[in-house]
């Protein structure tokens, strides 16, 4: 890592001298190698030993290699060390580490990611697309659930804030996450092994190897096994009052192959497989009478099985005047779940919801093909550019069987029953539950172009556009009825324009206007407020910022302010009939905020890093919605479908004008103090302490203070890493959630049927000991 640091710092002066030309470095293999070796980040975990000043951070999420200090937009990064120090094995465990970004578990599926309040409010709708796109090694991760996998052999995660409607586009109206895994290196052989053990029987084993094959080929292999007992327990399971929830038993493998056929032609192919067989999340109903946040009054033993696979490849050819890249992937996820929908035992659920609702089977099997081609000019010219085309085709088969039943055990699961079998299933409680099968297809095509015009050595103009054709179809059947077919489509032009000016070699100011869009989709049920289809949403953003380095690059301060014009925000709503909710649109929302991130090299080998974000917003349209939490109380009081119930639902219609949109914490911060010491008896000790705080905020637009307000969250983590002299071994000791606070990580609402609102808590205190070897 020290050698890699020195390489990056060595090119720093040339980056500045060529008027920030590093925006568009060419050559796919060069981009891959730079992204792989650039593992030092602005966020805690960087190794600053052997270097003077704060490290240069290179990102590739704009499809070209760029120094983050030259980009006229807000970008933060997490390196491998930062991820390991937080012991994060998935995206949810990074929540809070980047202020302005919320990453929430949902209790029943893939996590939701919101940046500056823009993300995915319709995660229970299988046609809904994310508002923050996930990209791995330049590949758009399209299959829902494919982002729940572990962080195997990750070199760097890049977080781009604000609409990315040009080179990224699809589903990026809130921003984008770019995950770069470690790549093979030609002519280099290396082996890494790591074993961890900790609280709750936490165990993790990881192996990596770089294997050269002659002078032109290399392979990297990475394997990981990870498991732990549940963070919480379900207390009412018959015969098992300590049924573990939030446990894990996962396996992941990746093989990456690099072939440099000629100096101009390279090929990179990788395949990844992930499997997790565990109990369900420990989501706790907010009305659960048990005061212990780690105990859930469930009586149904829920299970979750996820299998995810990706095969992708990139071919690049450098013509000299431009580099051509072609990227293709196939992605597939199989997700099979069963869970207690009301998160309570029978007696409590019957009292609150008029029945006990159990999802005995929730199957989804999304798959996707992606293809992309782009052509990028060299960086050392007055106008540098990139242009390309993108294709996406998704298919998602979804099937659900839910029973209302007094017995917590499994009920019959049959998606093609005979009349006699169906009669028996209705008798078991299916009629008062829910059965659904759907086939959803989504196709997107786009062309894009972006360029940088270096007007003067200090003044730069960036502009780009993307035109998207999007088409979705849905075939839906409920209660074994005939299929209903629904279609939706749209065409949209998005893009951005930026102007940045370098006051000095180390101080830059910029203004950026950008537009992003997220596709619309189809609903399973609809009556009045909820229509058969819902519209695409779009975000127009203005961002003004400054990036600065002082005192010989020993102090870095970056800041920005932003204002979003958010149109047709996609939002879940109930409808006038029970169990007929779905996705709708809130016409106009405005959000705004200020963000600051800083890093400083201090005396006595200390390093201080911090990030702060403050955000707010307001609904500016008179959109009528129905809060599922309120309509559930109508069903409980009067009985579903009764005249009184329907009248109660109609009276509950409300305008959300003037209310605060969800997931906009008014204040959040992450501060880390780290130090590196050479010990008297030999070896090096790296130690750090990280504090994370997020103020309370509303997680939905209904702004109900009882159900919607998420209390503040605080977490303190520490890490100590010892590296003896003259050996390739190292040892690490982590304490996650040092104070053992049971704060709420996320609050989630089940908006189809019951309107259950649940808390998902941060994991309890964990002690983790890790021993590793790297050669």
Name its key features.
775 residues; mainly beta; 22-stranded antiparallel barrel; 5-stranded mixed β-sheet; 43 strands; globular
The beta-strand count equals 43
| Basic shape | globular
Rg over CA atoms, rounded to whole Å, is 26 Å
Strand content: over 45%
Q: What would you call the structural class?
A: mainly beta
Helix content: under 10%
What average pLDDT do the residues reach?
87
Assembly of the depicted chains: single chain
Number of helices: 8
What does the main sheet amount to?
22 strands, antiparallel, barrel
Distance between the termini: 12 Å
Low-confidence stretches: 1-51
Q: In words, what does this structure look like?
A:
The structure is a single chain. The protein is mostly beta strands and 775 residues long. Helix content is 9%, strand content 52%. The strands form nine sheets. It has a 22-stranded antiparallel beta barrel. It has a five-stranded mixed sheet with strand order 3-8-9-6-7. Strand 11 and strand 12 form a beta hairpin. Helix 7 (628-638) runs antiparallel to helix 8. The longest helix is centred in the middle third of the chain and has 12 residues, at 419-430. The chain is globular, with a radius of gyration of 26 Å. The model is unreliable at 1-51 (pLDDT under 50).
């Amino acid at each position: 890592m020290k050698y890699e640091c020195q390489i990056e710092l060595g090119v720093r002066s040339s980056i500045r001298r060529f008027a920030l030309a590093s925006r568009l470095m060419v050559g796919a293999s060069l981009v891959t190698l730079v992204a792989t070796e650039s593992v030092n980040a602005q966020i805690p975990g960087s190794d600053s030993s052997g270097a003077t000043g704060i490290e240069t951070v290179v990102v590739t999420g704009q499809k070209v290699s760029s120094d983050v200090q030259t980009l006229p937009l807000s970008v933060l990064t997490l390196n491998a060390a930062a991820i390991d120090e937080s012991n994060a094995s998935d995206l949810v465990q990074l929540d809070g580490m980047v202020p302005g970004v919320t990453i929430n578990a949902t209790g029943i599926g893939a996590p939701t990611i919101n940046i500056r309040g823009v993300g995915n409010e319709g995660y229970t709708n299988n046609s809904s697309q994310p508002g923050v796109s996930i990209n791995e090694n330049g590949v758009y991760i399209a299959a829902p659930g494919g982002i729940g996998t572990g962080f195997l052999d990750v070199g760097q995660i890049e977080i781009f804030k604000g609409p990315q409607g040009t080179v990224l586009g699809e589903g990026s109206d809130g921003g984008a996450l770019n995950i770069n895994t470690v790549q093979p290196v030609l002519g280099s052989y290396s082996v890494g092994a790591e074993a961890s053990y900790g609280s709750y029987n936490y165990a993790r084993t990881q192996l990596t190897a770089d294997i050269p094959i002659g002078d032109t080929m290399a392979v990297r292999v990475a394997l990981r096994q990870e498991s732990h007992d549940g963070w919480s327990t379900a207390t009412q399971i018959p015969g098992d009052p300590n049924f573990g929830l939030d446990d894990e038993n996962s396996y992941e493998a990746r093989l990456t192959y690099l072939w440099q056929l000629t100096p101009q032609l390279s090929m990179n192919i990788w395949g990844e497989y992930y499997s997790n067989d565990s109990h369900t999340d420990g989501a706790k109903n907010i009305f659960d009478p048990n005061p212990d946040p780690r105990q859930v009054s469930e009586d149904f033993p829920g299970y979750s099985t996820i299998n995810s696979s990706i095969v992708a490849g990139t071919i690049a050819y450098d013509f000299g005047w431009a580099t051509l890249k072609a990227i293709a992937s196939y992605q597939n996820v199989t997700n099979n779940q069963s869970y207690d929908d009301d998160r309570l035992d029978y007696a409590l659920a019957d009292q609150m919801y008029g029945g006990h609702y159990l999802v005995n089977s929730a199957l989804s099997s999304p798959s996707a093909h992606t293809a992309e081609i782009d052509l990028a000019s060299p960086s050392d010219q007055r106008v540098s550019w990139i242009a390309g085309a993108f294709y996406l085709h998704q298919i998602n088969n979804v099937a659900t069987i839910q029973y209302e039943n007094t017995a917590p055990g499994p009920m019959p699961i049959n998606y093609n029953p005979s009349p006699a079998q169906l009669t028996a299933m209705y008798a078991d409680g299916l009629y008062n539950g829910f059965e659904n099968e759907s086939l959803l297809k989504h196709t997107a095509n786009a062309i894009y172009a972006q360029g940088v015009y270096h007007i003067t050595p200090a003044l730069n103009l960036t502009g780009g556009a993307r035109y998207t054709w999007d088409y979705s179809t849905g075939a839906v059947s409920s209660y074994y009825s005939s299929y209903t077919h629904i279609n939706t489509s749209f065409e949209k032009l998005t893009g951005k324009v930026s102007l940045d000016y370098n006051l000095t070699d180390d101080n830059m100011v910029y203004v950026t206007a950008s537009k992003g869009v997220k596709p619309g989709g189809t609903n399973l049920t609809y009556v009045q407020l909820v229509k058969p289809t819902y519209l695409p949403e779009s975000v127009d953003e203005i961002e003004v910022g400054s990036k600065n380095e002082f005192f010989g690059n020993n102090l870095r301060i970056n800041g920005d302010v932003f204002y979003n014009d958010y149109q047709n925000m996609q939002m879940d709503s109930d409808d006038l009939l029970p169990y007929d909710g779905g996705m709708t649109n809130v016409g106009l929302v405005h959000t705004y905020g200020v963000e600051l991130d800083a890093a400083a090299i201090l005396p006595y080998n200390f390093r201080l890093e911090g990030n702060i974000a403050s955000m707010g917003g307001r609904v500016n349209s008179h959109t009528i919605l129905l809060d599922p939490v309120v309509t559930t109380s109508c069903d409980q009081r009067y009985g579903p479908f009764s005249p009184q119930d329907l009248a109660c639902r109609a009276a509950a219609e409300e305008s959300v004008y003037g209310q605060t949109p969800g997931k906009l914490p008014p204040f959040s911060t992450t501060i880390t103090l780290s130090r590196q010491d050479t010990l008297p008896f030999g070896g090096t000790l790296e130690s750090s302490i990280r504090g994370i705080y997020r103020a309370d905020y509303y997680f939905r637009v209904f702004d109900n203070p009882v159900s919607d307000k998420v209390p503040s969250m605080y977490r303190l983590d520490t890490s100590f890493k010892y590296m003896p002299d003259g050996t390739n071994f190292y040892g690490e000791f982590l304490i996650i959630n040092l104070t053992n606070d049971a704060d709420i990580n996320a609050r989630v609402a089940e908006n189809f049927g019951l309107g259950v609102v649940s808390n998902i808590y941060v994991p309890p205190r964990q002690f983790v000991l890790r021993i590793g070897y790297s050669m």
